[in-house]
Amino acid sequence: MATTPIGSMPRGRAFLLGVRDILPILIGTAPFGMIYGALARDAGLSPELGQAISSVIFAGSAQFLLAQLVKAGAPGFIILASVAVINLRHALYSASLAPHLKDLRWSARLFLAYLLTDEAYAVAIKAYREPAPSGPDARPFYFAGTGITLWVVWQATTALGLFVSALIPAGWQLDFALPLTFIAIVVPALRDRPSVVAAAVGGLLAMLAVGLPFKLGLIVAAVAGIAAGTLTERVLARHGEAAR
């Protein structure tokens, strides 16, 4: 039996389908909202500030890093630069989705940009790989269903983590969980040589530069990984053109 493309569905149905499709990912995401809440309190942030950061930044990895840098007493410009670098991957997500969203009103594009996360992109991009419908496109509503659901769960679990953080033993090292999660996300996505080179260079430099103050090793590793991947892609493209 033929399946109706998401873009051709009624908007309400597409939205609910987005809610449904993000739910399995939330099983793995929700605990990290709680862990961030606990780390924020451990860094000395008030519950109000910790929750506000979760609402404004809405990016788990950046929030984890921010809490660690605040606890380490890093200067404000280091915190801002580190958060900006670790969120550079969202520019790639935006570039991938921009052609599909160019006909939306600017307010709708801004709203969907705010909802754009690793998990929401991973789910929504599947819909945008389908052929575009000839009539009204319901895929933005599918995207909104995934993003809004994730946002609500993230805010709720952050609040829960802030509330119960006093019950977590001080000896528990909770921040190890985020790198493990990103390893699980990144490894299956390494499907070509540039991405493998970028991951290898970034991972190696992150280990070598771990002793730099204020987590600056992360910035060095991220910039070097991006540069290595870009250079590899250009070299491969040049050799491909020469072969033709």
* Total strands: 0
Radius of gyration: 20 Å
Structural class comes to mainly alpha
* Shape assignment: globular
- Uncertain runs are none
Task: Give the termini distance in whole angstroms.
Answer: 43 Å
Account of the 3D structure:
It is a single chain. The protein is mainly alpha-helical. The protein folds into two domains: 165 residues, no CATH class; 50 residues. 74% of the residues lie in helices and 0% in strands. It is built from eleven helices and no strands. α1 packs parallel to α3, α1 runs parallel beside α8 and α5 packs parallel to α7. The protein starts with 10 loop residues before the first helix and ends with a helix.
Tags for this model:
244 residues; mainly alpha; 2 domains; 11 helices; 74% helix; globular
Provide a concise account of the structure shown.
This protein is mainly alpha-helical and 244 residues long. It contains 11 helices and no strands.
